[in-house]
Specification:
InterPro entries: QcrA_N (IPR045603), Rieske_2Fe-2S (IPR017941), Rieske_2Fe-2S_sf (IPR036922), Rieske_Fe-S_prot (IPR014349). By secondary structure, this protein is an alpha+beta fold. The chain is 38% helix and 14% strand. It is elongated.
Amino acid sequence: MSHDMSENLPESHGSAGEVAEHGNPFADPGLPAHEPRRTDIDERAAKRAERQVSLMFVVSMLATIGFIASFVAIDPDKIVYIFPLGKVSALNFALGMTLGVALFMIGAGAVHWARTLMSDVEVPAERHPIEADDELRADIMEQFRQGAAESGFGRRKMIRNTLLGSLALVPLSGVVLLRDLGPLPEKKLMGTGWGKATQAMPLELVNMSTMQPMKAEDIVVGSLTFAMPKGLTTHDEDFQQRIAKDALMLVRIAPEDIKDDKSRELGFEGILAYSKICTHVGCPISLYEQQTHHALCPCHQSTFDLADGARVIFGPAGHPLPQLKIITDEKGNLVATGDFAEPVGPSYWERAR
């Protein structure tokens, strides 16, 4: 048995040596012969492909224009039924479809251009070190110039111009979306709901907790109460927008402790009505220290001296809290006779201060 095995071993090794000597089973088969495309040999087919690519780029441009037109023309609150999506926002659907078509057509046009008109000759290259030598750099640049020439970018002006047009228009979609950061303020920041009040037709202050008119006799020294104008309710669709400007905080300070004469005149028997909106970034102020008459914004710790015209004594706020002129009517209810003398909330570029 051992003799038979020793006789078989040399034969086995000899067969393996013959395979290694006569050929490599994993040899590189090389590249297949290049087969020209129809567009390579038929100029009419090439022209047809050029028109198809240009059409895709033109569709992209039209879709971008449609995106901008949809943004301007469609009501943001409009709801439509789209099968099978169901009820969706008409504006969101239109923006998504037009922008999707614009981007898809640029990509599809580029792919169709590459597959039908650009050079498809495969060029093998051996692996090389990461750092290229001068000869390799020159070879790469020559290949780039050759590829640019074979792509027809300079010769096929229709494709070039429509591609540049679509690429130039698509960024406008992003620029238009900047408009969706919010409505233009126009003059909306200059006034509040208290602007409806006049000397002849004053506007009642309503307690935000009880929703009842506020009587001067019910406000005690050292207290802090929040108010809003009569007619505004939490059920209003735009309540959050309006209360962000109309909210008041009322404090009652002993008249002899009020340092600012103008502030004393705007109040009623020591009751002072200030905007509740911080003049830094618009946070609602809700912390009051009755011994010092300081109001603190919880967001960034801006501190206002309510006994001294609500001037800023600490923190990043840029100006004092606006104060509302208040009196009482024949029923003893607190009423406002006009709007704030200056806009409420944070500073912005159109403010005088």
